């Protein structure tokens, strides 16, 4: 990532979020990372329906999104993001324990950038995140339009 990209992690398992952040840092990802514990919180952030933290129009974002979350699940979060004129360019990587082929197909149909199944084994999970971090160093991410320009 050549310019600063804010990494968003939406996962209801705080342990997974910490492990993701820790392993991204291990491969040299020093970007800002914001964590959200449910689908509603990430939607409020992206659609600027909250007071803190808020999305800023001049930043670029990349979302790591779990499927099984309280309040609003990841599939619905993805659906709302990709239906929005300004947010649909946001790269969304589904990062979930769900390996159901129907979920994989649905998320790709809705426009996810990639779909990664979290390994259950701790070591394999850590290794997968390290590989994801290395991939993220190459990704080019567009800026999102200002919420006022919708």
Write up what this structure looks like.
It is a single chain. By secondary structure, this protein is an alpha/beta fold. It has one domain: Rossmann fold. The protein is built from five helices and five strands, in the order βαβαβαβαβα. It has a five-stranded parallel sheet, sandwiched between helices. β1 (5-10), α1 and β2 (33-36) form a beta-alpha-beta unit. α3 (74-83) packs parallel to α4 (101-110). The longest helix has 15 residues, at 122-136.
Strand content: 15-25%
| Count of domains | 1
User: Count of DSSP E strands?
Assistant: 5
Main sheet makeup? 5 strands, parallel
- Order of strands across the main sheet: 2-1-3-4-5
Runs with pLDDT <50, length 5+? Answer: 146-150
CATH architecture: 3-Layer(aba) Sandwich
The top-level CATH class is Alpha Beta
Helix and strand topology:
Elements: E1 5-10, H1 14-26, E2 33-36, H2 39-46, E3 60-65, H3 74-83, E4 92-96, H4 101-110, E5 114-117, H5 122-136
Parallel strand pairs: 1-2, 1-3, 3-4, 4-5
For this entry, give a set of tags.
globular; 17% strand; alpha/beta; single chain; Rossmann fold
Task: Write a short abstract of this structure.
By secondary structure, the chain is of the alpha/beta class. The protein contains five helices and five strands. The protein has one domain (5-138): Response regulator (Rossmann fold, 3-Layer(aba) Sandwich), CATH 3.40.50.
């Amino acid at each position: 990532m050549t310019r600063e990209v804010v990494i968003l992690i939406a996962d209801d398992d705080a342990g997974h979020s910490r492990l993701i952040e820790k392993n991204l840092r291990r491969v040299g990802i020093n970007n800002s990372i914001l964590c959200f514990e449910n689908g509603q919180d990430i939607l409020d952030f992206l659609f600027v329906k909250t007071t803190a933290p808020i999305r800023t129009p001049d930043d670029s974002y990349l979302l790591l999104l779990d499927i099984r979350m309280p309040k609003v699940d990841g599939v619905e979060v993805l659906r709302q993001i990709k239906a929005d004129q300004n947010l649909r360019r946001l790269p969304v990587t589904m990062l979930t324990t769900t390996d159901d082929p129907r979920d994989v197909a649905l998320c790709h149909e809705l426009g996810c950038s990639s779909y990664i199944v979290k390994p259950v084994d701790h070591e394999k999970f850590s290794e997968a995140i390290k590989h994801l971090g290395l991939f993220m160093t190459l990704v080019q991410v567009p800026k999102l339009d200002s919420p006022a320009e919708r």
